[in-house]
From TrEMBL, chains A, B:
Molecular functions per Gene Ontology: L-gulonate 3-dehydrogenase activity; NAD+ binding
Top-level taxonomy: Bacteria, Pseudomonadati, Pseudomonadota, Betaproteobacteria, Burkholderiales
Domain (3-hydroxyacyl-CoA dehydrogenase C-terminal): residue spans on this chain: 193-255
Family, as annotated: Belongs to the 3-hydroxyacyl-CoA dehydrogenase family.
Swiss-Prot/TrEMBL keywords: Membrane, Oxidoreductase, Transmembrane, Transmembrane helix
Name by which UniProt lists this protein: 3-hydroxyacyl-CoA dehydrogenase NAD-binding protein
Cited PANTHER family: 3-HYDROXYACYL-COA DEHYDROGENASE FAMILY PROTEIN, LAMBDA-CRYSTALLIN HOMOLOG
Residue span, 3-hydroxyacyl-CoA dehydrogenase NAD binding domain: 12-190
GO biological process: fatty acid metabolic process
Annotated transmembrane regions: 12-33
Amino acid sequence: MNLPKANLDRPVAVIGAGLVGAGWAIAFARAGLDVRIYDANPRTAENALPWAATQLEALHRHGLIDEAPATIAARLTLADSLAQAIDGAAYVQESVLERIDVKRQLLLDLDAVADARVIIGSSSSGIKASDFACDLRISPRVLIAHPVNPPYLVPVVELVPSTQTSAETVAFTDALMRGIGQSVVRVRKEIEGFVLNRLQAALLREAWALQRDGIASCEDIDKTVRDGLGWRWSFMGPFETIDLNAPGGVADYAARLGPLYHSIARSRTNDGPWDDELIARVERDRRQHLCADELAARRDWRDERLMAFAAERAKHAADS
Amino acid sequence: MNLPKANLDRPVAVIGAGLVGAGWAIAFARAGLDVRIYDANPRTAENALPWAATQLEALHRHGLIDEAPATIAARLTLADSLAQAIDGAAYVQESVLERIDVKRQLLLDLDAVADARVIIGSSSSGIKASDFACDLRISPRVLIAHPVNPPYLVPVVELVPSTQTSAETVAFTDALMRGIGQSVVRVRKEIEGFVLNRLQAALLREAWALQRDGIASCEDIDKTVRDGLGWRWSFMGPFETIDLNAPGGVADYAARLGPLYHSIARSRTNDGPWDDELIARVERDRRQHLCADELAARRDWRDERLMAFAAERAKHAADS
């Protein structure tokens, strides 16, 4: 697989070395970048290295990296402090806990030590940058760069500027992300959940309501997507799917099916939150198909399937 | 690829020979069944045969059928009348126009000529069987069997009984559909749009609103799904995806992300229909990526990708 090489002569820093941060470290190192990893909990940072080594072996097995796993792993180094991690870095990927106060504190700390050039991307999956990254010296250089987990397998990344992010920051991060092989989505206005989790929320809202109302089981709803809807979405997305699904394209499709979809939308206007009873119900339904003690093994299965998917996708890269 | 052979000693009839009906004919014939095709417009029925021959060649090229295309095509015959099509048939797949009056009229015609054994599945993609199939002699033997197009490639089929459908009818159709290799979803209560189009409607509702509000372009929304969300959905579905996406499974996930999703749901409660202005806007956006005169070629590309997806899926069939 031919990966683009990022054109960057300075290292990047990954702050927060949980699954998301460590996954980012692989994505950067795979593209040839030196990566410094820092976590406020030293044990978390230390664990990231053997975990990354294991993932790199799996990527190699699936033909998803050309270099030896050890060559890529050698680009990962642990930093003893935040200041050391970002010293001279071109870019910082922040992947600390998804909580406004935690992210705000990290931004305050970065503001105290960052040089005037570094760009900071946040892995926030739904909290807007304007809620935690404004009114600082570094604010023009901060934006959201939200991945799907794990970012070294699933390529999409949403770039969402805050109200104070500069155009140069967006352009730099866009180029960097394309440079390491990610698929960049430009979100033009801030909105809670951005695009990815809003789309997921919409599908889940309906899925949970169908299960709650006894229309279908979790397994049958999953089957509807994995053996049906999900096929075209996985290589075209929803707009292209419907554009090709009526003789005259998307406007023709809207004329035919718009009334049905509007009627369905009107039937979902006042759902409450997922309450404890509903969560327990869905939990029981899922546990009929997968015991709690099989979750970890099934996650390994998922990652193998994602790698097979990525390898298959790479074959079609020229054909899209 | 090993296809199951349907255990049925009588032919099936396909009524309505447009894309959906002709696609069903391939799915039945591929499994070894004799198929009689009838359309009120004889030209439509005649066109179905060469079209099916072309599709069978493509399936053969992708390793999706073991028999020679001509062997399978030889199981397709045209019927001169509705009565001739269903005479002695075990099962009728109705794929006429998606309009209550048209479907009701067909059911009245079938009621007049059907024998006491035939089971009738309707390809209706959103209209409930109770809206057109009740209070007839054949009503206990009618249900919805809604496919994704084309049914010989994408395996899911939703079975939705009307209030008058017998349990035997559901059991027979479930066994038949499994017998020809479809993935059966049992919808337990009638609801407009069933499961598949309700899930699609939910995603499209959000997608159109994001485009309308200037948050992201059609292309960026498609990218979010095809390079992100769609990967896991294409082999796991939405419930298994979230069940594996938190250490403690789906209940743990709901505790973490339920509040975000509820907040997003509350922000989508009063959308109007897709009006002409919005449809024109989406149409313009899509046409920047695909000219209207390229739609047909892009549909061929889609079908090739679906066949490659089906071939890849077959490899993982034992591994799910």
